[in-house]
Design goal:
CATH superfamily: Ribokinase
CATH architecture: 3-Layer(aba) Sandwich
CATH class: Alpha Beta
Strand order of the largest sheet: 6-5-1-9-10-11-12-13-14
Helix content: 25-40%
Radius of gyration: 18 Å
Structural class: alpha/beta
Largest sheet: 9 strands, mixed
Distance between the termini: 23 Å
Low-confidence stretches: none
Strand content: 15-25%
Length: 325
C-alpha cells in the first residue's frame, strides 16, 4: 500500500450538521428517542430547525468526519459523496477541501437539497440526530471515481449510506475496484438500526468485500443477536483482516488473525458531546493501518482522536491530531 497516492478514501453521506443544546422536554415534544438517529423529510427538518435554540453549523457526515480526522493526523485523504449546488453544498465542500482533502464529486444541479443533520445534545452529552438525507441518496456507481479508488490504500465505506439500491451498487463497485488494485476495503456499520434493516446484506458485504470492519457493541449485538463481544470479534477476525469494536468509556477492542488487543479510552477533562466519537476513532485506526503501524498503536491513535472530539461541540477535530499523538 506504500505506493498509494492517498492513505484513505471515504465514501459516504455528505451532510452539514446543525448542532444545538436541548433538554429532555424538547426531545419528548418532537417524539425523539434520546440517543437515536431518525430519518426525517424536508418539512420535518424545517419544523425542528425553527424550534431549535442557537446552533452551530459544521460539515459532518460519518465518513466525512473520519476523513477529516485522517487529514488532521497528516494523512492524505479523499472523499466521494453527493451534495447539491447550493449554500450547504458549498459549505460542505469548503470545509473538507480546506483540510487538504480531495473532494471532486460533481454537485447535483437539480433534485433535493444538500443533506443536513439536526443534532440535539442533552446535558449528559448524548446526541440525538434527525437527518434529512436530501442529495445524499442520489449517489450512484457513476460517482465512483475508479482512478481515485485505485490510488487509495484504504477505501472506507459508510454504513449509513447503505440504503438506496444505487448506493449499494456504488459500494460494490468501489470495493471491487479497490481489491482489484490490491487495496483494502473498510466498512463502518454506523448504527444498529442500519444493521437491523440490512443484517443479511451487511454479512454478505463483510464476507465478500470487506477487509477492515468498525462497529460498536450495539451494532455487534444487532449483527450477531447477542452481546458476546469476544466471540463476535473472534468470528470476524477469522474472516477478515481486522475488526475494531468500540466500547464507549471502556475503550475498544481490535482483533485480527494475529491476536486481540484491548485499547483503553484516552482520558478527558470534560465530556461535552459524543457526536463523532466513533468516526474519529476510525480515523486514527485507519491512519495507523495505512502507515502499517502496530495494531495497539492504531488503537491508541483512535482513542486520542475520539477523546479530542467528545470534549467540544462538533464532530471534527478542533486541534491538529498529529500534535496530540
Amino acid at each position: 500500500m506504500s505506493d498509494a497516492t492517498y492513505d484513505v478514501l471515504g465514501v459516504g453521506n455528505a451532510i452539514v450538521d446543525i448542532i444545538a443544546q436541548a433538554d429532555e422536554a424538547f426531545l419528548e415534544k418532537h417524539g425523539m428517542p434520546k440517543g437515536g438517529m431518525a430519518l426525517i423529510d424536508e418539512a420535518q427538518a424545517h419544523a425542528i430547525y425553527a424550534d431549535m435554540g442557537a446552533a452551530i453549523e459544521a460539515s459532518g457526515g460519518s465518513a466525512g468526519n473520519t476523513i477529516a480526522g485522517v487529514a488532521s493526523y497528516g494523512g492524505k485523504a479523499a472523499f466521494i459523496g453527493k451534495v447539491k449546488q447550493d449554500t450547504f453544498g458549498e459549505i460542505f465542500k469548503h470545509d473538507l477541501t480546506s483540510l487538504g482533502v480531495t473532494f471532486a464529486t460533481p454537485a447535483a444541479t437539480d433534485g433535493p437539497a444538500t443533506a443536513r443533520c439536526l443534532v440535539l445534545v442533552t446535558s449528559d452529552a448524548q446526541r440525538t440526530m434527525n437527518t434529512h438525507l436530501g442529495a445524499c441518496v442520489n449517489l450512484t456507481p457513476d460517482d465512483i471515481d475508479a482512478d481515485l479508488v485505485a490510488a487509495s490504500a484504504i477505501t472506507y465505506l459508510e454504513g449509513y449510506l447503505f440504503d438506496p439500491p444505487a448506493a449499494k451498487e456504488a459500494f460494490r463497485k468501489a470495493s471491487t475496484i479497490a481489491r482489484g488494485a490490491g487495496r483494502k476495503v473498510a466498512l463502518t456499520l454506523s448504527d444498529s438500526f442500519c444493521v437491523h434493516r440490512y443484517k443479511d446484506e451487511f454479512k454478505a458485504l463483510i464476507d465478500q468485500h470487506v477487509d477492515i470492519l468498525f462497529a460498536n457493541d450495539d451494532e455487534i449485538e444487532a449483527l450477531y443477536g447477542n452481546r458476546d463481544i469476544a466471540a463476535a470479534a473472534n468470528d470476524l477476525a477469522s474472516k477478515i483482516d481486522v475488526v475494531a469494536i468500540t466500547l464507549g468509556s471502556q475503550g475498544s477492542l481490535i482483533a485480527s488473525g494475529e491476536g486481540r488487543y484491548e485499547i483503553p479510552a484516552s482520558p478527558i477533562d470534560e465530556l461535552v458531546d459524543t457526536t463523532g466519537a466513533g468516526d474519529l476513532y476510525a480515523a486514527g485506526v485507519l491512519y495507523g493501518l495505512s502507515r502499517h503501524l502496530p495494531f495497539a498503536e492504531c488503537g491508541r491513535l483512535g482513542s486520542i482522536a475520539a477523546s479530542e472530539v467528545i470534549q467540544h461541540y462538533g464532530a471534527r477535530p478542533q486541534v491538529a491530531l498529529a500534535e496530540l499523538a
